[in-house]
Predict the 3D structure of the following.
Amino acid sequence: MTIVVPYHQDERLPGSSIPLPGAAAVETVDASLPEGDVWTRLVALFDVVADLVSARLGTPEADGPVVVSGDCLVAGATITGAQRAGLDPSVVWFDAHGDVHTLRSSTSGYLGGLALRLVLGAHEELFAVPLGLRPLAERQAVLVDARDLDPAEADFLAGSDVRRLGVEDLQAAMLPGGPLVLHIDVDVVDTAELPGTRFPAPNGPTQRAVLDAVRRVLATGRVVAVDIACPWHPARDEHETAARARLLTELLAAARAAA
């Protein structure tokens, strides 16, 4: 089962924003979000997602959940769901960016740039505490690619225990032990192959290299949930839609083959 979260932050996206293969068994989250600030609304949405992930993991005969959404923040809900199911997962985070800003260090204010740092415990009072997320230790996070870092992110990572690896360097022996949540921001793929992302970063790995690395992580047999973020603008034409659909089809097929 694929859990589709058609939101970018707390904004509901059109159904066409995430072009999944027609044969995919899908459960779409369409939450009624409360009035309040963006954090209140995000926590309400992510609580629903976390419960779905936990329920899926609590069904022995079910495949591991695959969550597909419009941004990286939903990964916090996927990890929380694994924790609610009694697991203590580490995270393997594929992304063109670091996602390790705080509200103080971010120059843009874009909340997606905080996504991994929130999972590591930043701004607990806004995110982890109300959601019930147990923040991960830095040693439980592997950041893959992250070719586009702001100075504050580079400084944080240089002094942290977060492990950074290139896509082609990633091997199973380099991963933390125990269960894993695999997070893939599709913008890790070079923009020449996947145009239209919200924050394009050139000179990235090919789609094939990313898929091969993803399969190496899945081949460990320790991935309990896959989280796929699609932070892209509306497709400009059929070519962009087809490119996105092909990538999602291959990612879902890889996840299901490893289940």
About this structure: The two ends are 11 Å apart (CA to CA). Residues 145 and 166 are 5 Å apart (CA to CA). Residues 238-258 form the longest helix (21 residues).
